[in-house]
Amino acid sequence: MRSTILIAILVIVVLVANMPATLKISRLTLYRPVINFNFFGLNFVRDLSFKLGLDLQGGTNLVYQLDTSKIPSSDRADAVSATQSNIERRVNLLGVSEAIVQTANSGNISRLIVELPGIKDVQQAVDTIGATAQLDFRETKVATPSAASDFLPTGLTGNDLKIATVQFGGSGNTSGQPSVNLTFNAAGTKKFADITKRNVGKPLAIFLDNQMVTAPIVQTEIPNGQAVITGNYTLSQAKQLVIELNAGALPVPIKIVEQQTVGATLGSESVAKSLFAGILGFIIIVFFMVANYGLKGLLADLALTLYVLLTLTIFKLIPVTLTLAGIAGFILSVGMAVDANILVFERIKEEIRWGRPRRAALELGFHRAWTSVRDSNISSLITASILFWFGDGSIRGFALTLIVGILVSLFTSVTVTRTLLRGVYGRK
Fold first, then answer.
1. CA distance 15 to 53
2. Of 288 and 272, the one with more pLDDT
3. Using CA atoms, how far apart are residues 283 and 331, in angstroms rounded to an integer?
4. Cα 301–303–305 angle (5° rounding)?
5. What is the rounded radius of gyration, in angstroms, for the C-alpha atoms of the chain?
6. Alpha-carbon distance 262 to 52, whole Å?
7. d(CA 223, CA 219)
8. How far apart are the C-alpha atoms of 393 and 157, rounded to whole Å?
9. What are the backbone angles phi and psi of residue 354, rounded to the nearest 5°?
């Protein structure tokens, strides 16, 4: 009974999530809802539209080479990470949806790959990404600052910051929580001493590309160029703050080495071909199951339909940026979703041949086929996880959609199909 109620709720949810943005039925017009709620301070917003990658909606692919020759070998990884974080921030300022910024290393050569789906002004993107990071420290000009305009340029910039590092304890921090240590060069030490002297008890804001990173309160004058930013930071938050600060303090020169533009027309053609392939494959599977297993196959097809809609709903909620490789992973998972039903149905046939009553054969078929279903899906999950962990770009997209598809198929091919079969064959 509980399984039936759960399936009924899922059917309603997936139908609503996958309906057109606007659906007209006679005089009635229905609008697909937008999810927007707060959960313990976390704002969750989804418009339930598919997020398309560069190869499906067009856009620009940029490849940058990083010059780390003047960076000490011990600091290169942090410098590359800081540069990636900086470029991600700049891409967000461009207003590009679902942009991807990732690193690619080959020997001593580091590269950044930037994918900008739907971008129109390519030159503006290139100019913005290639600009030098601007890190500066600002003091408040009002009693209770609430916006960037409430702060002034102090003249202390990223050129005066030598390094930012994570530390535990020290300088009055007895809690053992992670904090951020700032070390200034000679010129920065003098500036910082003057600034902290006149701002004791007031916030000193740190801005990166005109966005405030943090605004710690100055506790005392700091004449030695060594400052500590304390607070209720987790280790990951402290590391992220260090990366953002070092993005201005450790700029890595970059140069564009490859630029590829994908037209929107080509993207539309890719979408159309992918949809045709997916629909054709689904239809073939539906006819195959009905031809081989009759009513049981038809019930499996209903479960498969729910699987497709439920998987697409999860893609929208995560959200997954769909690419051609990602669609390929999804289509592959559709075939794998009915594989479990085939194993179960063949097992049911064997139980009936051995003289089991139909209802007993149904339960034993699912029970005894579960080990094979479980092991085959676990092996596929392991392979897909390895691809996701070690791959990049389109490979990770393929692996992600395959992983989601496998996990959903375990639910629909076993729980949903079994519930439907019990409803039909469980009656006397």
1. 24
2. 288
3. 12
4. 70
5. 28
6. 13
7. 13
8. 35
9. -80, 5
Total Cβ atoms within 10 A of residue 319:
15
Q: pLDDT at residue 250 above 60?
A: no
Helices and strands of the chain, counted as H and E runs = 11, 17
| Neighbouring C-alpha atoms within 13 Å toward the C-beta of 289 | 29
410 pLDDT higher than 70: yes
Is pLDDT of 317 > 70?
yes
Asked whether the predicted pLDDT for residue 72 surpasses 60, the reply is yes
How many residues in the chain? 428
> What does the alpha-carbon distance between residue 257 and residue 217 come to, in Å, rounded to a whole number?
43
> Residue 382 above 70 pLDDT?
yes
Cα angle for residues 205, 207, 213 (degrees, 5° grid) = 80
**Which DSSP state fits 150?**
G
If you write DSSP's letter for every residue of 39-86 in order, what string do you get? ETTEEEEE----EE-HHHH-EEEEEEEE--TTS-GGGHHHHHHHHHHH
Cα distances from 218 to residues 138, 161, 228, 303, in angstroms, run 12, 17, 10, 62
pLDDT value, residue 303: 93
Beta bridge partners, 227, equal: 182
Give the mean model confidence (pLDDT) for residues 249-265.
75
Q: Which residue has the higher pLDDT, 403 or 180?
A: 403
Distances from the Cα of 173 to the Cα of 161, 170, 180, 206, 230, angstroms: 22, 5, 11, 21, 7
Domains of the chain plus CATH, in order, are: 52-133+253-261 (3.30.70.3400), 137-235 (3.30.1360.200), 264-425 (1.20.1640.10)
| Neighbour tally for 289: CB within 10 Å | 21
* Angle, alpha carbons 388-394-400 (nearest 5°): 40
